[in-house]
Amino acid sequence: MPGDRVFVDKTAYGLEFPFLDFKILAGDSPVAGEIAIFDSPADGIRLIKRIVAVAGDSVELRSGHLILNGETLLCHRGSSDECFPGHFADLNLEHGWGQDVASFVVPQGKVLAIGDARGNSRDSRYFGLVDEAALYGRAVSVFYRKDEGFQWQTL
Fold first, then answer.
1. pLDDT tens-digit series, residues 38-58
2. CA distance 126 to 120
3. What confidence tens digit (pLDDT) does each residue in 130-153 have?
4. Can you tell me the distance from the alpha carbon of 134 to that of 37, in angstroms, rounded to the nearest whole number?
5. What domains can be seen in the chain, in order of their start residue?
6. What's the count of helices (H) and strands (E) in the chain, helices before strands?
7. What are phi and psi of 120, to 5 degrees?
8. For residue 61, what are the contacts with CB-CB under 8 A and spacing of at least 6?
9. How many CB atoms are closer than 10 A to CB 124?
10. pTM for the full predicted model
């Protein structure tokens, strides 16, 4: 949510030597459903978005809802929540759902990153797929929420 402060694991996708494109330590591969931090390929602004599909996944976005590898991710009928294996997305469709995405397979080394506020998100639908190597870190939890104060909400 806007105004949230999040704890980020900067080593999740590997540890890089500062200012050089050199990995000191290999990290995990991104997984569909987790939230990642990266710089926008369009303008370099740091973004936080949900990784909704990774290399080899077949993905489609229709009316704001994902179909991943032929399966809809809706948790239950009539809900706008999506259930990824090991992750839960509480979608915000208050501003609509934005642009649909026709079915395609994510190529190697790329991820599809889309915001949970589908109708109000500058994401892969506008600037394209994100390089796995460009992922800066994994958001682990919210530790401060604007109107609620300090808390620990695992993402």
1. 999 889 899 999 999 999 999
2. 12
3. 999 899 899 998 887 777 778 777
4. 9
5. 5-154 (2.10.109.10)
6. 1, 15
7. -140, 50
8. 52, 67, 99, 100, 101, 114, 125
9. 23
10. 0.85
